[in-house]
Structure formats: C-alpha cells, structure tokens
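Aim 2 progress update. The chain analyzed this quarter is reproduced below.
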Amino acid sequence: MKMSVLFVVFLLLCVHRRSSGSHPKPSCRYPPSQWCRSLEIAIECRVQKQCMELNAIRANQSVPPVSVTLYYESLCPACRAFISQQLFPTWTMLQDIMTVTLVPYGNAKEVPSGNSPFTCQHGEPECRGNLIEACIIHLTGHSAFQIINCMESAVDVLNAAQPCLQLYTRSVSWSTVESCVKGDLGYQLMHANAAMTRALNPAHTHVPWVTFNGEYTDENEDKAMSSLFHLVCQLYKGVKPPACTGAAVRLNRGFC
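Predicted structure tokens:
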C-alpha cells in the first residue's frame, strides 16, 4: 500500500472516530498498511467505511501520471541531496500520480578505447557507483528506487550498495549485481544511459537535470529545485490527491 494511501486511511479513520464520538480500535491480524488491500481485510479490521471513502478520492487512473526523469551522478553531492531530500520523499507521498525514471550517468564521458570505457566527473569510484546503480535499477524493478535512495542517503554510497540491496529485496543477490557490473550487461546499460543523456534536447549543462513528461524548461527546474512536491501536484492534470493540499516548503538548490 502506498504511503499516501495509508496516510489518507489514517486521516479518514480519525475523522470517523471524532464524528461518531466513540474510539474503536481496529483489532485484526493485519498491519495498517494492508487494511484496504481487500474487502475481507477491511471488514475484519473494521475500516471498510474508510477504505470505501478512500477509493472515492484516489487519483483518477485514466489521467496519465507526471513522468519525472532524473539524469544524475552517483557521487554528485547536489544529486544526492536532490534524491534524498526532494525526489524520494515526493515519490513516497505522490506515487499515485507520478512515475520516476533514474538515469545514472550525468557528466560522464564514453571513451571508445582504453582500459575503462567511461570517465566520470568525480573519478573512478563514481563510474563504479553509476554502474552499480544502473545494474540495480535494471535487476530489481519496483524496489530499485528504495535501494538507490538508501545508497545515496548513506555516508558512503559504494559501501552501502550491498546492505541496501539486501534490505529492500531478497529476490536479487549481490553476486547477481556484481556479475552485471563486471559483465557485458553492465556496459550495455551504461552505454544506453550515455545515449539517453546525449539525446537530451536541450543538452544538459549540469546535474541533477530533471525532465517532466520528457521536457526540460528553466522554469520547471527552478520550481523542482525549490519544491518538487508542489510542482508535481501542479503538473498533474487529474483530481489532486489529498496530499497535494499541503503547503509548499522551499529547499536550497545545488548542481554539479
């Protein structure tokens, strides 16, 4: 269950309790995150009314979500701050109305010959970090963003990779990631990220570089760097989810 959905369930439950003057306490064998997973669970946990109200105000699935694509580098301080302070928290609350695509490459350069096929702005460790994250994104699917955020929020991005992987998924082993990093698959993934980055129009001049629905504008960048959450709510064309009614909080910006 998504975080925004869970938040609304709790909100509706609290409103219901106050209006009824009683204080029912759901007693069931399921955690709150699964209360609205099915009608049977909702009935057992005595929250069916709240779950029905929730379904009535959820984002309209016929309206396309806001597509956010981040072009970044694994060791860029500004990229790390944007992921951990803006992008991941915004996605956590608004994943009903947005999608996120991560492209780890940034200001790297593809070298046709030599021992290393890529050079990176922050040195060889960043090239390895980009490669690890590209493999994780490819291999872990829906768990990828949580793993990447875990890495980018850590003191040491590279050393955090294995424990972050193990924390958020059990279906992909670290040895599988290492095989990707050291093999042809890793190179192919990085080459694809290089091609995507080179194809940007206008061409990127710094990272983090963020596009919305495939387009970049200076205006959207300014808004994204100060309050991505507010911008996603603004760009979404459907009925705004309850989370979007909160006040915007401006944050400092930075680039590499």
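The chain has ten helices and five strands. The CA atoms of residues 135 and 177 lie 6 Å apart. These observations will guide the mutagenesis experiments scheduled for the next reporting period.
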